[in-house]
Amino acid sequence: MNLKHLLFAIILTHTITVVAQDTISRKREKTKAPFWDKVYVGGNVGMQFGSSTFIAISPLAGYKFSNKISAGVGITFQYFHYKNNVYDIKTNVYGARIFGRYMITDNLFGYGEYEYLNLEAFDFFPRRRVDVGSLLGGGGYIQHFSSKTSLVAMVLYNFTPSYYTPYQNPIIRVGINFGL
């Protein structure tokens, strides 16, 4: 084999590779999911009844940037009522959060969140409302029931606890996500 044949083989191989890569890229562009196929909604609901009543609703909406990375926003509302022979306390907590999720495997993920809550402080009379920001991180497990429905369980840690933080570490959340 002389130099001309070797150069021709290299150029031909390179050209075939470039054309194949271009064809694969075009197929991927055509098969990209529409915007709404990457959006999911869900959240958590919690309830407790008795001498202490607790109701929590935390809906969320997220967007899958890739198969591994998603992010979103959510809101939180909590109602708390405690009553005994001495006390009758009612209060509401509300707020918002922004989160990010990184899929480590098909079922395990890392999670980060910043949550802002407004809640009633009981340390002074009269009661007053305070703002509490929390930086939460941890991981979780996602169990897919179908291509658009999954159960999500997380264990989180609050890296910025304060006197008014309503959670104790670790924080455990279980919820459901639905794709649109």
What does this entry look like structurally?
- The protein has 180 residues and is α+β, with helices and mostly antiparallel strands.
- It folds into two domains: 32 residues; 145 residues, Porin.
- It has an eight-stranded antiparallel barrel.
- The radius of gyration is 25 Å and the shape is elongated.
- The model has no long low-confidence stretch (mean pLDDT 85).
Task: List the keywords.
180 residues; alpha+beta; Porin; 2 domains; eight-stranded antiparallel β-barrel; 1 helix; 8 strands; 16% helix; 58% strand; elongated
What is the structure about, briefly put?
Helix content is 16%, strand content 58%. It is built from 1 helix and 8 strands.
CATH class call of the largest domain: Mainly Beta
**Overall shape:** elongated
Quaternary state, please?
single chain
| Level-2 CATH architecture of the largest domain | Beta Barrel
- Supply the number of helical segments: 1
β-strand amount: over 45%
Order of helices and strands: HEEEEEEEE
Instruction: Find the structural class using helix and strand composition.
Output: alpha+beta
| Mean pLDDT over the full residue set | 85
Radius of gyration: 25 Å
Q: Please bin the fraction of helical residues.
A: 10-25%
Total tally of structural domains? 2
- Given as residue ranges, the uncertain stretches (5+ residues, pLDDT < 50) are none
Q: What's the story with the biggest beta sheet?
A: 8 strands, antiparallel, barrel
DSSP summary, beta strand count: 8
**Distance linking N and C termini:** 59 Å
Spatially, the strands of the biggest sheet line up as 1-2-3-4-5-6-7-8
The CATH topology annotation of the largest domain reads as Porin
